[in-house]
Amino acid sequence: MDYRLLADATAITHFVFVAYVVVGGFIAWRWPRTIWLHLAAVAWGFSTVLFKFECPLTNLENWARHRAGQAGLPSSGFIDHYITGVLYPRSALEEVRVLVVICVLVSWAGLAWLSRRRGATTTATH
To answer: Which residues cross the membrane (predicted)?
Structure first.
């Protein structure tokens, strides 16, 4: 088995998951049933930050990297290694966290507004 490929695929999956936590609510504007998946992703994502739960994707990537003879992620984890200090300055961490929360809340508020509007449209046509 190519453990490096597994580690890289796990890192990509992790990036996609983090991106989904941020924008998944907006995706639900188009596909409203996906909101349940987004709620679960947000709950898990925020719990790993707030309560320091271990992420199975981080554990899988570390395991695969060690098997491939590479160093694993630092103890601070995936976001600190790949995102903080790379996509935004380390000094902006709190601001970025606030922006993520705002994105999630705005997406949910927009979905609620769209759902009411769709419901009103359906009621008006019957």
So the answer is: 12-29, 36-53, 96-114
Distance CA 7, CA 47 (A): 23
Domain boundaries, the chain: 3-125
pLDDT tens per residue across all 126 residues of the chain: 799 999 999 999 999 999 999 999 999 999 999 999 999 999 999 998 889 888 999 999 999 999 999 998 888 789 888 999 899 999 999 999 999 999 999 999 999 999 998 876 655 555
Q: Which residues pair with 88 in a beta bridge?
A: 84
| Packing angle, helices 93-125 and 3-30, rounded to 10 | 40
